[in-house]
Amino acid sequence: MIKKSIGWIDERFPLTEIVKHELTEYPVPRNLNYWWNFGFLAMFVLFIQLLSGIFLAMHYKPDVHMAFDSLQHIMRDVNYGWLIRYIHSTGASMFFAVVFIHIARTLYYGSYRKPRELLWWTGLVLLLLLMATAFMGYLLPWGQMSYWGAQVITSLFGTTPVYGDDIVRWLRGDFVVGDATLTRFFALHYLFPFIIVAAVGIHVVALHWVKSSNPSGITLQAKDNIPFHPYFTIKDLFGLGVFLIIFSAFVFFGPEFWIMPENNVPADPMVTPPHIVPEWYFLPFYAILRSIPDALGGVVAMFMSILIFAAMPWLDRSKIPGGALYRPYYRVMVYIFLVDVLVLSYVGAKPPEGHLIVIGQVATFVYFGLFLLLPVISKREDRRTRETGLPPAALALMAEERDELSRSEHYLRREEDLKVMSKGKRKGEGA
Amino acid sequence: MATDKGFEQPIHFDSERRDFLGITTTVVGAVGVCGAAVPFISSMNPSKDVKAKATSLVDIASIPLGKTHIVEWQGKPVFIMHRTPETIAAMQASQPDLDPQSDKDRVQKAEWLVVVGLCTHLGCVPNQTKDGWICPCHGSLYDNSGRVTRGPAPTNLEVPYYEFVDDHTIIIGKVV
Fold it and tell me: Residue A1 domain-assigned?
């Protein structure tokens, strides 16, 4: 019966074909480690956010007179409203945590390099969409932090030469952040996740075309690839279990950990809180903004600090496989970069006073310096490696894979993979 | 997978054990998903502030003899009529044949008629007349016991659940 129904569908829609191509026969390098779980986790958090967000929208009211109270209504009156809201607020932070790890993994293992440039760029677009969505969502509770955060960030666009004031007024639909701003932020906060879903679709299509990279950085031939299902569905599900334990711990035991106390005070356009801090995931960029003494310069630097990632495929001139794994100089650079981001986060969280200003400026200098030094260092590293040679493990793997490549010309084509796979199988059976 | 160092015999592929693990995992996962769905589905049920409207406490002492007050209960109008002895006598004597019911079965105390003020045809609010009510939408007639005497309404006006708290206070509806 089931077989017949599937057969009926298959005649009209490539169901079995899709399941085979994307799941049961989708080849994945067998040597992926747990850092490769975070793409799937990001997708899962997106799903959590969509679900909890839609249910919150059933009770939320995007009106300056009702927004704050409707949140109290959700927390106190709506059945499990507290749970759904805490899932959504914790989910936002978890989304960024997962995505940041996902990006750090890509940087460390050099997964942004050929042929994965488009994968990297679509990922960067996803990050920008996520940031925009999170920023607009943060206004909705209409607390003091929500209000002044939106006020400050929309003011950034006021630094645009000539048209600054007009752009800010257009963004807000008011002279300050007001009812028009709140309502449009709600509308867009509801819309953007669906754009993100579409962009994730493109991201995944690109991934399934070029296939996953792997810690060795060497393209593995068919025999070293194993089907996504069941090997990586199980691995992803295990990772999901661990993730959900951490997620639930925050939702049930520390939901307020992510919510600033100041935001439990209703928005007041007449009084700014003594110390304005963005959400933790914006801190490094906020620190860069504040480190530049010039207003326009700060805004440009802040946007550049994210957009500069797009240049990574060009900045990194190295041909050594494996990202940081086989690249001692680059590895040090990645670690300095990660520490630098933490320093910037710390500076961004504190009031800009005394030596913190200098530390912030140095960290900003290091941040951009690392990107600008990368072409020189990666070139030099390449030369050095050519003299000293790659580690024996990498050489052995490369020789093995080159041998394999001679058997299949186009490693990207699944048909070729399958042919090689079945050839290997027959040989295995014979022996 | 088929052989392993230290084992001379190939490891037996235990399909029964594998099926058991597969089914157990699926069942645990399905139960988990159902459990996670409960709060979301529940959130669409009436919230506490809506539930607070489930009952209405009405002071009926303020209704003069022969008059009708309209009170709100769960967002619906409820007619509370303080009936005169003549009306009571007339209602107890008659029994319309569209939806036969005796007046005694429709009241707890004969002088107090409590009915939901929505026409049983399509939900309009009937207007009061000397003999009962007439629905402005399609002309259904009800007598002073809220019983339908002329269609198109199919049934008598609904008698909501209510209790006398004391002689001059009633509570309409049940706590949900």
Answer: no
A103 and A245 both lie in a single domain? yes
Task: Report yes or no on B143 lying in a domain.
Answer: yes
Percent of chain A with pLDDT over 90: 71
Across the beta sheet with B148-150, the strand order is B127-129, B132-134, B141-142, B148-150
Judged by DSSP in three states, A278 sits in coil
Looking at the structure, do residues B57 and B131 belong to the same domain, yes or no? yes
Q: Are residues A101 and A240 located together in one domain of the fold?
A: yes
Residue A409 has pLDDT above 60, yes or no: no
Print the domain residue range for A424.
Answer: 389-431
* Count of A-B CB contacts under 8 Å: 36
- Of the residues B24, B42, B43, the best mutation for testing chain A's interface (the one with the most A CB atoms within 10 Å of its CB) is B43
Long-range contacts of A193-202 (CB under 8 A, 24+ apart): A193/A46, A193/A49, A193/A50, A193/A53, A193/A133, A195/A129, A196/A46, A196/A126, A196/A129, A196/A130, A196/A133, A197/A46, A197/A50, A199/A122, A199/A125, A199/A126, A199/A129, A200/A43, A200/A46, A200/A126, A202/A122
Q: Which of A88, A235, A378, A417 is catalytic?
A: A235
Residues B26 and B59 in one domain: no
A78 touching B, CB under 8 A?
yes
Q: For residues B70 and B19, state if they share a domain.
A: no
ipTM: 0.81
- pLDDT, tens digit, for every residue of A136-178? 999 999 999 999 999 999 998 998 888 989 999 999 999 999 9
Section A199-224 average pLDDT: 88
Q: Specify which residues B70 forms β-bridges with.
A: B79
Flag if B40 and A55 touch (Cβ within 8 Å): yes
A184: pLDDT strictly greater than 90: yes
Query: Are A209 and A102 within one domain?
Result: yes
* B31 lies in the same domain as B96: no
Counting the structural domains of chain B, the total is 2
From the list B12, B82, B138, B168, the catalytic residue is B138
Residue B156 resides in a domain: yes
Looking at the 3D structure of chain A, how many domains does it have?
3
pTM of the predicted model as reported, rounded to 2 decimal places: 0.85
pLDDT tens column, A253-300: 999 998 888 899 999 999 999 888 899 999 999 999 999 999 899 999
Q: Give yes or no: B121 in active site.
A: no
Residues A196 and A105 grouped into a single domain = yes
In this structure, are B89 and B163 located in the same domain? yes
**Residues of B with Cβ-Cβ distance to A73 under 8 angstroms:** 47, 49
